[in-house]
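User: Can you predict the 3D structure of Probable protein kinase UbiB? Sequence below.
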Amino acid sequence: MRLLRLTRIFWIVYAYSLDEIVAQADASGRLTRWWRRIFFWRRSAVPRGVRLRRALESLGPIFVKFGQMLSTRRDLIPPDIADELALLQDRVPPFPSEQARALLEAHYGKPLESVFARFERDPVASASVAQVHFAELFDGTQVAVKILRPGIAPVIEHDLALMDTAARLLEALWPESRRLKPREVVAEFAKSLHDELDLVREAANCSQLRRNFAGSHMLIVPEVYWDYCGRDVMVMQRMVGTPISQIETLRAKGIDLKRLSAMGVEIFFTQVFRDGFFHADMHPGNILVADDGRYIALDFGIVGTLSDEDKNYLAQNFLAFFKRDYRRVAIAHLEAGWVPPHVRVDEFEGAIRAVCEPIFDRPLKDISFGKTLLRLFQTARRFEMEVQPQLVLLQKTLLNIEGLGRQLDPELDLWQTAKPFLERWMSEQLGWRALRRQLEEEAPQWAKILPQLPRLVHRDLSERLAEREREKLRRRQAEREAASRRRERLVWALLWATAFAAGWWWGR
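Assistant: Sure. Here are the predicted structure tokens for Probable protein kinase UbiB:
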């Protein structure tokens, strides 16, 4: 079975002339010359990115998802290929409703009519990993039921094994490919896909995001109904809204698109800098707009997390970049430990300046945050910076948000929208607000310790006094032992002297 699948992959590589892409990527030119001699009759006028996209679509949904992930790795692949792969759509025919019913009844251990007051036979969405049906609980709550595609796990494992084999072959046959890290890319994809196979994890992501934005005037996140959830099933609140891509419909409903655009930027930076937890799959298919103008988030299979160090790094980079303080950008990379300490700051600063300075010939509203972050990553790679997976997710999400925001408002100035938020966050991290926040965070612990302080001080003093007494006793004991050893040596000396004198007297 695996051999047949591998044969099909090689055939599709040949049919779409993907071998030409490898040959063109050969820096030495030897592989290109060899390829042209062997396949002299093959010349494709179709752009390479289009051919790669069509090939992945032919290989099936798992390879489509791989192409989507690959489109985010703009630090590794050329822009024309990344742009084309970003067009891949994760849409596959739904599996039969009878299978969906059987899966749900096996999960709940009882007939579906005993679980839901109503269950819609036809799915509203279908993707490679799962599909969604609308239903109604017995208390009248409208819900969306996400069901894992039956038999998907073995298919995924099979295709992942093939991808890993192909990555190893690529590295063995084409050493220059190692700089693209094909095996690491496949491993990153495998981890992401395995996470998506656990709907409990997705439900937990949704619940966390909802808690972070409880009472928000900007974002609505569906409620999770945990009593109905499991590894293969997720039940959440049914959301009603207009797809954000339907611009004319939003206008007709009186939605303020400029406000919506700016609000999307604020939501993103709030997730990143306030929470360190962000929705990492914010493409238009996962976003609705409520009639009151708030965003509605869907599909929580992919999320990103950032540490305090990550957030500090990002904020310093963004602020320093727009102040043209390239030395600060270089130092931020070094302080984060993402480039080796032996890297010279002045050389790194010069490389960053060469990439960023031309951008400022354009109005700030025309500067792409996402592309700026990408250029920083690409430059840092030359200085041995290891790619940080969380920042790759962030860069992908930022590009999505940026593109979406400018689709809603072509005049969106992302910097002017984000700058106050970034400056406020930095002030909270480093200024008097940070001190106050830290005191507030420590206050409960101090409140617990203060009533015990006299007892703790008394115990500490008692322990110190007891230790002093023990030390005095140890010194006295040592002095007694030393005096005893001196007396013992004196007695032996007298005995030896007496014996010597007696021997001398008798010898006379």
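The CA atoms of residues 441 and 476 lie 49 Å apart. The longest strand covers residues 130-136.
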